[in-house]
């Protein structure tokens, strides 16, 4: 067996996110921290942050964390029932940069897909951020 060396660049949340690759924003509903943007890593206790009950947001965050590996980070915006996800995505952009935005629990039609595309173009024009 050959020697194996792994170098970890630990993100202890002591400064800004220095790269947007593999840093995603999840927007969805949960029992706790409604209306807040949460910065998450592999050590985040999702039961404490999102509530002990099951939610689509928590299930997707767990899947992303388990598949990403030890240096995973993400943002999670716990969406209030009276706030459009587009506003949540804009608000999250004020403090972090993301490679992509995942919107959970929304119904999609042609108008909402066009609105998502318009937001994508807005983020490119305003922040120079290419996202999926």
Mind explaining what this structure looks like?
The protein has a 4-stranded mixed β-sheet with strand order 2-3-1-4, with helices on both faces. The termini are far apart. It is globular, with a radius of gyration of 16 Å. With 132 residues, the protein is of the alpha/beta class. It has helices spanning 46-50, 56-68, 85-93, 110-127, and strands at 23-28, 37-41, 73-78, 100-103. It has a single domain (23-127), classed as Dna Ligase, domain 1 (2-Layer Sandwich). InterPro entries: Phage_HP1_Orf23 (IPR019694). This is DUF2586 domain-containing protein. Pfam families: DUF2586.
Characteristics:
132 residues; alpha/beta; Dna Ligase, domain 1
Give a brief description.
This protein has 132 residues and is an alpha/beta fold.
Q: Enumerate the spans where pLDDT stays under 50 for 5 or more consecutive residues.
A: none
Strand element count: 4
Number of structural domains:
1
* N-to-C CA distance: 40 Å
Structural class label: alpha/beta
Mean pLDDT: 88
CATH level 1 name: Alpha Beta
Specify the overall morphology: globular
Strand-residue proportion:
15-25%
Report the helical percentage.
25-40%
How do the strands of the widest beta sheet line up side by side?
Answer: 2-3-1-4
Helix-strand sequence: EEHHEHEH
Largest sheet composition: 4 strands, mixed
CATH fold-type name: Dna Ligase, domain 1
- Rounded to an integer in angstroms, the radius of gyration calculated over CA atoms is 16 Å
User: Count of DSSP helices?
Assistant: 4
CATH architecture: 2-Layer Sandwich
């Amino acid at each position: 067996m050959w020697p194996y060396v792994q170098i970890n660049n630990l993100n202890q949340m002591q400064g800004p996110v220095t790269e947007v690759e593999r840093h995603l924003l999840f927007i969805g509903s949960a029992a706790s921290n409604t209306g807040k943007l949460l910065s998450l890593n592999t050590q985040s206790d999702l039961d404490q942050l999102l509530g002990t009950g099951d939610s689509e947001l928590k299930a997707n965050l767990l899947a992303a964390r388990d598949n990403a590996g030890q240096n995973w980070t993400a943002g999670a915006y716990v969406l209030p029932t009276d706030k459009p996800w587009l506003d949540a995505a804009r608000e999250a952009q004020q403090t972090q940069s993301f490679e992509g935005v995942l919107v959970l629990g929304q119904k999609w039609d042609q108008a909402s897909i066009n609105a998502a595309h318009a937001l994508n173009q807005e983020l490119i024009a305003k922040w120079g951020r290419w996202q999926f």
